[in-house]
Design a protein that fits this description.
- The complex is a heterodimer.
- Chain A is of the alpha/beta class.
- Helices cover about 40% and strands about 20% of the residues of chain A.
- In chain A, β2, α2 and β3 form a beta-alpha-beta unit.
- In chain B, strands 2-3-1-4-5-6 form a six-stranded mixed beta sheet, sandwiched between helices.
- Chain B has a single domain, classed as Pyruvate-ferredoxin oxidoreductase, PFOR, domain III (Pyruvate-ferredoxin Oxidoreductase, domain 3, 3-Layer(aba) Sandwich).
- At the A-B interface, α7, β8 and α9 of A face α1 and β2 of B.
Chain lengths: ~350, ~180
């Protein structure tokens, strides 16, 4: 399997989920991620798994809760408006400490919005998909190869930490084809003594529940969960640096915006501008420490994002507002050109980010 | 070297398929490649296009907004993308479907009546591959010798009987003399 094949991001992701041992896909179609469901419909029966098109996104996420409670790897996928519908279930998954793998192939919003690529669910993914104190681990691939590797890793992280891992892609990542290797190595399996698998009258029954009416108990649960989150922030941050060694301007971008920024950086470097990029691969946990270190070296940051200024907030927080942060953005399904990013880099170079 | 190509036409002409063929051959040549289709509502009965990049260095943005090579199979596509082609670039026109010439004087324009040739040669539906054969000849975007192996990758197993006609179409375009 080491030979590279040409695959669409959505299909490569689906195949990677099967390789990660996922045998339950519960979904509901929506552009631009329907290929995931179509691929699963074709492949799941052949590997002895369950493909189910639910009656709605809400039903699908609740089925994920059920499969996960039984100790099996489960996934669902959708696009922006569909993820909003899944919000309640995502909070319940957190409250129950259940693993799950959820894909959001983002499109423009708000509301039904459009079907073209977007990154405007950044807040939703990293802050508040729904109610309560909780986080999801959020992975942001920027190539078809990473769609595969992050899916494989995502299932592992979900089981390891008993939490939801969200893969945050966008329409271009889902629709584009690139060469990809599906050689992912072995799947790590985790003991799940908490799963509701039937006691065989041999043990006390397990309960999976997110209702805690005694506030003392619920507070302890939340404290414990945040200890886990702190551990993850220390140990699971992923990012990539591009040309940062001598850079005095730092672009921050993820996913497709990072790909476009790379072209712009190459163009700016050809003009002698010292610009580099920090690309967060985990959006939560955000690479805060790295960003803080970079803030001491550069004169300013540029947040390149397909949203109205969401990523920029994490850039400001992580750099503790020690450096100006410029915004280079498009929204509503529009994608910035490398030339637009280059113009912003030139502005940053000229002004140092000060207005 | 990086070749940015944009292929555009009507839905149903095999625009996405012939782009995938090029990208696959690029992959087999150990190049970095990307293929990005339009996926909007326009693909249901309207215009279709895809960006194909074949490069010696890792592909950055997969979106081709200024093609080195533009291949068009309907008039709206030529109208839409002619101006965005880079100076010194190449524009390939299916002259059986587009009855105007390229206005730009700073690009190389090539005309081939691909849809008519396909119909005359019993290769209906393969005008896309005739165009691609001609593009390969004039641009060198991929070598022609190895077309068979990429065809085998992109023609699905259930349609292997179409390999010969696809090869014939590519050869027809490659050997077309203006």
């Amino acid at each position: 399997m080491s030979e590279k094949v040409l695959m669409k991001g959505n299909e490569a992701l689906a195949e990677a989920a099967l390789m990660a041992g996922c045998r339950h896909y519960l979904g509901y179609p929506i552009t631009p991620q329907t290929e995931i469901a179509a691929y699963m419909a074709k492949r799941m029966p052949k590997v002895g798994g369950t493909f189910l098109q639910a009656e709605s996104e809400i039903a699908a996420i609740n089925m994920v809760i059920g499969v996960s409670a039984a100790g099996k790897r489960a996934m669902t996928s959708s696009s922006s408006p569909g993820i909003s519908l899944k919000g309640e279930g995502l909070s319940y998954l957190a409250g129950c400490d259940l693993p799950a793998f959820v894909v959001n192939v983002q499109r423009g919003g708000p509301g039904l919005g459009g079907i073209q690529p977007s990154q405007s669910d950044y807040f939703q993914a990293t802050r508040g998909t729904s109610h309560g104190d909780y986080h999801m681990l959020v992975l942001a691939p920027n190539s078809v190869q990473e769609m595969v590797s992050m899916t494989f890793k995502g299932f592992d992280l979900a089981d390891k930490y008993r939490m939801t891992v969200m893969l945050l892609a966008d329409g271009t990542m889902g629709q584009m084809m690139e060469p990809v290797s599906l050689d992912m190595g072995d799947v790590t399996t985790y003991e799940k003594p908490w799963a509701v698998t039937g006691t065989g009258c041999a043990r006390k029954h397990n309960v999976i529940n997110s209702l805690f009416l005694k506030p003392e108990e619920l507070e302890v649960k939340n404290f414990e969960r945040y200890e886990k989150y702190n551990y993850i922030e220390e140990n699971e941050v992923m990012y990539e640096e591009y040309m940062m060694d001598d850079a005095d301007i730092c672009i921050v971008a993820f996913g497709i915006a990072a790909r476009i920024s790379k072209n712009a950086i190459d163009m700016a470097r050809a003009k002698g501008i010292k610009v580099g990029m920090l690309r967060p691969i985990t959006l939560w946990p955000f690479p805060k420490k790295e960003m803080r270190k970079i803030a001491d070296k550069v004169k300013c940051f540029v947040s390149v994002e397909m949203s109205m200024g969401q990523l920029i907030e994490d850039v400001r927080l992580a750099s503790e507002c020690t450096r100006p942060v410029l915004l280079c953005n498009r929204t509503g399904g529009m994608i910035m050109t490398p030339e637009e990013v280059l113009a912003k880099i030139e502005e940053a170079d000229k002004t140092g980010g000060e207005n | 070297m990086t070749k940015n190509m944009l292929i555009a036409g009507f839905g149903g002409q095999g625009i996405l398929f012939c782009g995938k063929f090029l990208a696959y051959e690029g992959l087999l040549e150990d190049k970095s490649v990307s293929w990005l289709p339009s996926y909007g509502p326009e693909m249901r009965g309207g215009t279709a296009n895809c960006s194909v990049i074949i490069s010696d260095i890792p592909v950055g943005s997969p979106i081709v907004s200024n093609p080195d090579i533009l291949m068009v199979m309907n008039l709206p596509s030529l109208d839409k993308y002619e101006d965005s082609t880079v100076a010194g670039g190449q524009i390939f026109v299916d002259s059986a479907l587009i009855d105007r010439k390229v206005n730009r004087t700073d690009v190389e324009a090539y005309y081939i009546p691909a849809t008519k040739l396909a119909n005359d040669e019993g290769l209906t539906g393969l005008a896309n591959m005739i165009m691609i054969g001609y593009v390969i000849k004039k641009s060198g975007i991929i070598p022609f010798e190895n077309i068979d192996r990429a065809l085998q990758k992109v023609v699905p197993a259930s349609k292997q009987h179409l390999l010969d006609s696809n090869r014939k179409a590519l050869e027809l375009g490659y050997n077309y003399a203006e």
